[in-house]
Amino acid sequence: MSQGDSNPAAIPHAAEDIQGDDRWMSQHNRFVLDCKDKEPDVLFVGDSMVQLMQQYEIWRELFSPLHALNFGIGGDTTRHVLWRLKNGELENIKPKVIVVWVGTNNHENTAEEVAGGIEAIVQLINTRQPQAKIIVLGLLPRGEKPNPLRQKNAKVNQLLKVSLPKLANVQLLDTDGGFVHSDGAISCHDMFDFLHLTGGGYAKICKPLHELIMQLLEETPEENKPPLPDWLPSVLIASQLPQISYITGTTESFSFLRHFAL
Length: 262
Fold this sequence. Notes:
Oligomer: single chain
Order of helices and strands: HEHHEHEHEHEHHHH
Strand content: 5-15%
Mean pLDDT: 88
CATH class of the largest domain: Alpha Beta
């Protein structure tokens, strides 16, 4: 099922404030402010699987150096992510790579609807951020033992393998991390509550994800740099470079000279 009014998973909708503390909207507003204050090269957006990633050392090791922002909110569905992206979380930034990981919380939707909701997110990103390469992470198995939700998530991934290649600037990273053992069980050492990942569980996902992100960043052309000023050759004399390298100032020429000499 594709996006559209006929698919409830593809209709943007803010999360209901069931608990009464408005935390969801507060988090969204903070993300919008981050878009105004920061310049990410990589943007992560999704549910708690994205949100909790930054609590582990592997985030600081692999993704923080890439100037990454984490826009994950626990409990989010495709509808919630669509609403957030339509309401400020794609403005004032120009990321080179956007990682999308959402869908396991779409309990009221069929696998076809969930896949359509994810497709709608990809199409929205392509419209708002056409320069960005998009990575969709496949949904993970869940529950200690085999259950219908595992089957549903697996079906979503199968549907995405067919539908996403038809869209621009996107690829699916479907890695189950070997979480399901030969007896059909998932270990608490990988998923502490049989849904959310431990540090070791994240490592199985984040390492191949990091490799793919690095590949896409290397393929992304650098923005055109301004031409060198006409007067530059006359001042860049070898004996002057050490002195220039320590010049600091607020003017464009001084800043440029300092960077060039270093």
